[in-house]
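#dry-run=false #mode=assembly
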Amino acid sequence: MAVTIREVASAAGVSVSTVSRAFTAPDQVQPTTRRRILDAAAELGYSPNPAARSLRGGGTGTLGLIVPDIANPFFPPIIKAMQARARHLGYTVLVADSDEREADELAAIAAVSKRVDGLILWASTLTEGRLHELAGQMPLVVVNRHVPGIPEVRISLSAGIAQAAEQLKAYGHRRCVFINASRAELSRGKSIQESFKALDLSLSELGPYEPRFETGVHAATLVAAHDATAVIAHNDLVALGVLHQMANLGMSVPRDVSVIGIDDTLLASVSTPSLTTIRIDPEEIATRAGDLLIETIARTTGRAGQGLEVHSPFVEIGSRLIPRASTGPAPAH
Amino acid sequence: MAVTIREVASAAGVSVSTVSRAFTAPDQVQPTTRRRILDAAAELGYSPNPAARSLRGGGTGTLGLIVPDIANPFFPPIIKAMQARARHLGYTVLVADSDEREADELAAIAAVSKRVDGLILWASTLTEGRLHELAGQMPLVVVNRHVPGIPEVRISLSAGIAQAAEQLKAYGHRRCVFINASRAELSRGKSIQESFKALDLSLSELGPYEPRFETGVHAATLVAAHDATAVIAHNDLVALGVLHQMANLGMSVPRDVSVIGIDDTLLASVSTPSLTTIRIDPEEIATRAGDLLIETIARTTGRAGQGLEVHSPFVEIGSRLIPRASTGPAPAH
DNA sequence: CTCCTCTATGAAAACGTTCCCGCAATTTCA
DNA sequence: TGAAATTGCGGGAACGTTTTCATAGAGGAG
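#status=ok
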């Protein structure tokens, strides 16, 4: 059915070895023969069979990406960016989601692991032991998870948080609420508390809840009880819940209360009022994670020690505040 | 590195042929040997190498899905649902996006076509000729596109549109506006006009524009000029633009004007007010498209004429109105 | 009891590539 | 100019499976 290397070889009057070299090691074949081969290949519409190639040991040319939830609006731009980056580097990306359950994550890994050269695991639910085991079997990069010895991409919200605190301070807010929905690096780090403390802002923490719209709706009613004038939500979705409930309560945003989201998803830019949020750049994270995985693959393959380009297996992605219409001066009390 | 069929064979004391059969044709091997093989395989952690399998001719076990834009919130739930369905059927899904440009679509197809058993093309930008050419090379299913002779999944908005018209009629609306952003089946079909005409509602069409938030913002200012009390937008995103601008103009939704979206994306359920929209069920469309492709693959493989199960290569997906808070009684004039 | 039909299994070819080896022709160097 | 090194190319094995074909044994019919 499909045209094989053999047909190209006979069409160009050379052996299959030479055709193979013409593609994979162009400088090992004489320019004139090479051109003849490439022409023949183009005319016949030949392209190498990835299955045969990877069977022979050349890798699959595919990167695996496992995210908690494809439908979470935070991820599609990242997936898209990683696809673009990978294609540019000659790779394809195979995406699956874990639904944040260990069983599903294992199923997803099983489904893709034999088809990819390496895996990016986002917020993996697996134990350290399992992750190390997996890392022993194939190149691995974890995102939003720290496991000693495994290459890691980390998202740091501290810059964005600090900017948010500054903005709120400048607007005259004094008492704020943080709606926590168990985002690891938020609940774990003390950086939010510290950022606010440093500016003499009081910050009460609500939760942890589930990261859902309804969480924001529910938490909004508690804000007034805390006598707070500003809310930082676990993510944009929760922030929209807050916005929604504030409207129901007859409160105006940002006149009566300021609201800040996290992630800068599409939701933030299309809400009414548009949502001030802490942006994590999807392109940057996709690029860095993809590149880190490809490096790790290269190192495993053995093409390593050819230079000093042994990057640290730890990459940090920053964040920054995107001011929009949901934040404003604190109401006079 | 990885454990092969040969190791399982020697561990179980049988030949590789028998191991292969134990997996692919379980009833051709004696129960006792089969169990022995399965046990050995489980203990060694064996799973067949997909590359070798597909090289031998058994297909890749992967479905290709090419959508216009992964980041469009309409698609992630569909991708997710198709992944789930496919995994259930023993397949994996490889997703790519075309960015609605022919060059990118061709690049995406080139990148995935050799790795999949068949392709689902969503709103393809390719010419009929190219599509037929492609369909000659591999199993193909098109969605939101009609090409004679190619299996097709079609989304029909007529039911949802009719329900929307009924609701608006019941609420006492008389003059409506439709914001068109070149969605093929909307601009092409006269069904919207007909649905509204049938209920004696006037419907003005704006556009066509690009399907963006700003389109809604822009169009909203024109609605008043049309003396209309209800707006149907090309999709939820555009509808949110309308919502946004109405708030800016000091108009209240739904008190002054009713707004209806299309697609029932996440956006619709989290906006303020929540958006009445026409829902297209992502699970249904994913399931039907996936199943149709798998059928087409099976037919191509030759496993066809074993029954009368030759379904029509044409599937229609319905729609329905999801009433939420953005529609209400027309204002007394 | 013999012959024939099944059934369960093994041996080996084939899928399309890559890459190691070997060979010839050419180039380099003393 | 002769030997050595280099270059360009072909032959063939190997990757891990599936599947055809062959074979040995079991069981049934006559």
